[in-house]
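Chapter summary example.
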Amino acid sequence: MSDTENAAAAHYGALSSPEAITKALASVGYIANADIAMVIYLAINLRKPVLIEGPAGVGKTDLAQSLGRCLDVPVERLQCYEGLDESKALYEWQYGKQLLYTQVLKDRLDDIVGQGRSISELTSKLSTFEDLFYSHQFLEPRPLLRAMEQDAGSVLLVDEIDKSDEEFEAFLLEVLSDYQVTVPELGTIKANVPPIVILTSNNIRELGDALKRRCLHLFIDFPDAERERQIVKARVPGVEDDLLKQLVAFVQDLRDKDLKKRPSISETVDWARTLVLLHASSLDESIVRQTLTVLLKHESDISSVSTGLGQMVRKAANASDDSRLPSGYPNLS
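The structure predicted for these 333 residues follows.
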């Protein structure tokens, strides 16, 4: 194991095994399956970024944020978009601050250089201020650099990498290969502790093979009913068991429909909170119809579902009473 890997393992020791990762994430409300726990364990110990793909709203971004919470380290988030460049991702100089100091220097020029000196002496004297203007105090670190400067480690979330340009993707590879960056005026800045790097993608475009080769791959799909019940219970502790089974069964049935946008896990959690707020103890057609917009975001989907809503509610009301927890998941009770 290299010095870099040893440093990472030491700082992220709370996640010392897949089982420890599962428990740590559950403590902050994130229910990880065995695949998620194993990939995170390998990422920490092999110092590899994790590329997470899957439908929107299945917990890709939340995984990175939950890792930060359970480790109590900063989460540096870089939101990708078309046109994102090095200055927005890595660093830029504080030109306004440099200009202010330049004005101060100009106002005190006589005091600084003195009187009666030759041009060469004046030039030599003024050149000593170049290092000051291009020092770290004038540097504005962006997410990539901030993540590498954290003494206690960090989680670097590169969100929606598929929205960035191919040029930025290539630049990111260079930064993550050695967890260091080069600032021409300052030299090489190496990570104090290599961050845990999470990249997410919604498959808007195909990512390059070079990026995929350097990453561990994790696909997170919509959860099955058992895991979704655990997720909702962790996020909405006040939901009653019967209502929990029914609302999850209803959402699972919705996802099997031909919809423009299937409801995400976060929308299931929002719906559970809505039903608890309305003091619902079970599903009925009236309350489902009134709150359907919490789950569905397109009018065409709402119209499509509305015609058979009563049958769907009755089906959910007859949800299985099997409340056993699947193997490999933490018991949150």
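To summarize the output: The first helix runs from residue 3 to 11.
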